Amino acid sequence: MNNRASGKSINVLLWPGKLFFLILLSGMIARAEQICEFRLTKCPETYDGDTIIVPEYVAALSSNIRACLSSVMFLDTSNQSHTPSIMFVIDNSGSMTGVGADDANDQFGSRFTVTRALLDTIHKTQPNAEVGIAVFTNHLNFDPRTNEYFSQYFQRMPKTYDDEPDQAYLSFIELNEQYGSRKGIDIIKDVLATDTVDTTKNNNPYSYVDLVYKPDFEINRSTNINMGFEAVKDAMNGASNPPERQFVIFLSDGDARGNEMAGYDDRYYFSKGENVPTTFTVFFTSSGDAPSSLETMADNVKQNGYSVTNPKSALWTIQTSHDDLMDLFMEKILTNILIPGNPTRIMINERSSTAYMDSSFIFAGGFSLSDTLTPFSLDINYRYRDTTDNIINDSTITSQFFVKRVAGASVPDNIELYCEEVITPDSIPVTAALLDTNGDGHLDRIDLTWSDNRALRDSMPTVSELVTLLQIATREGKTVALSADTMEVDTANQTIRVILEENTVETLETGWDSAQVQLAPVPVAGDGSYFYIADIVDRAGPVIKTARYYRDPQTGRDSLIVEFSEPVIWQSSSVIPPEVFNYYRLDTLKDEAFSETDASDLGQIPAGAIVMMTGDFLPVGGIDSLQLDDNSRIVDSSGTAPPENGRKAPVLYAGGEPWAGAIVNPFTPGVDDIPYQVRNFYDNVIYSQSGSNSTSGTIIGIQSQGPLERQSDGSYGKAVVYDAVANMVRKNLRVYQETTTDYGVFWDGLNANGRRVGGGAYLLVISTTDINGDTQTTRVKLGVKR
Q1: 104, 116 Cβ separation under 8 angstroms
Q2: φ, ψ for residue 185, nearest 5 deg
Q3: Is the pLDDT of residue 393 over 70?
């Protein structure tokens, strides 16, 4: 559009998800160029180890990075109640291969290649899963009489169907189990091995992908779906897992066809869905429609009462390819079989974001590519809920790929390009520094600084004209909007101070994973150039989030538990709390709050971590509030010290949620004894858990201001031990009571099998409920020495 009054030509270009206003002024410095970025169309793990070749005009990876809900599943490998029994039922009729049919709905065998690939995913997340295979045409296609070694694992049907007595299926095989010289997963892969078959069709050369294995009896490529589900029913009789953990994955491209009907008078008998567990049906078609018999079957299986998970049964149609079928499995099917992780945070080449919208993480800007090879390292944090104990857990998946710019290269199929030819002025890079000047834990100013020496215009834009977006994603995973109120232009120091309307929400803002500061491309210099954000830095120092006081009833020693607003780094190897904290009583600074201290080098403390310092403190009521001192003995990860007169956190005396601390930490199972006085105080906890007055192990003391709710088994909560990679080590620990407000958990350092655990870091997760019905989860880190 044209603005004739001002003599300006304004081009508005719209990219998906982005709006660029490019203003061209007569006489200004300008250039024309094509700007291209690429976006990943698949889950990031799909590209792990790959080198993506892009044309040389591609300058960046998009700021929108896809992270699939179901791209990774997490499951406790020691919890048998999670283990699934999965039966694949695969149609191998003529219309699948294109032999004897006009169309080929799966000419290249993705039903087999994807199933083989899925075995790796299932094995990685649940190695104890058991998998069976039934392939059918007019008969089941496995024959126990054949010579292949895996024929010994074929299960012959219990009676003769359709005049063929040797029909069989691959019975359930545990993926991680050793069968002779082969693992279960390898046996199944051998059964599903494929090869290209060269033949003729309509007097023309024709090729298709089929199983290498062939039965000794004759098959005619018709479609006996009844037979496939007879195999399912027989297989499930031998399943190791309960009905709610039994699943069928049915891959087909046609309706029932042919004279063989598995002994029924109705070739559509399967559609009744009787005695069938949860079934996920994928129908291969180019028309988008599934036959009514399959729709009826899906509805009936949902309602047949076989298990509580049967209502999850579903039917999808797909025009197949390996990638499309794999995406469907990962995003729709395995989420109902395994436990999906919800993406919570991504880190790419040391940049991180927690802003997750529309299946993608959002960054403030894209990722520039080098002239040759650009490496990308991705860490995606996922959060999932353990369905057995309802505890939320976290895990991380790491992948790496490379991007190479090559002149004349074509665009790969698994990425999308977004390009525009634009005319832009020569803009001025600006650094945005986020500050908390009054130290209350909330951002109140953003300083925009630049080093370019071009003279600014006399008439600068207003703050509302210049600033278009201010937003941070906190380390707690919350998106917080910031609002610009006014701005001060300091041309002498090449700084613009944007004053914010300070938030009053509970979420503290000094620690953030990602920030977005966007400026409108309005002219600020005499030549028409404008500001753009080149870097965003943290200049808001840490503050105290919470502080709790606890006095050990046996030793009389005091503990102060401090939680920070963001990760902090101690600047000295010898930490003396009075040099780091200010202590207040009746709002008056207490210079000598401690008579003795005992604290070691704590290194870098992760955000949200609990720091315990013990010593002979003032008696209860001796400290009202706690504040970080601004003497730079403690800084955040960007090197910023706490602010002067920063946030004062009230000291809670055994109030609020229960908190816990390990009394023997680290410890050596079977070697280190619990101190005598501690063992005496917690004798009921130890005896209730172990049935004896054990001396070796650790006690996790728990204190609650109000009583906890007593459970039917006599305990007051439960505790689960995880190792460093989130595998469950022990789940049958319980919280027991000692006094009205004192509780504890005893762990002898043994795993679920009664063996001593190895040395390393462990996490004990405690779940309790108070008498008001409020549930709390407390985490304690434990160290084990060997």
Answers
A1: no
A2: -60, -35
A3: no
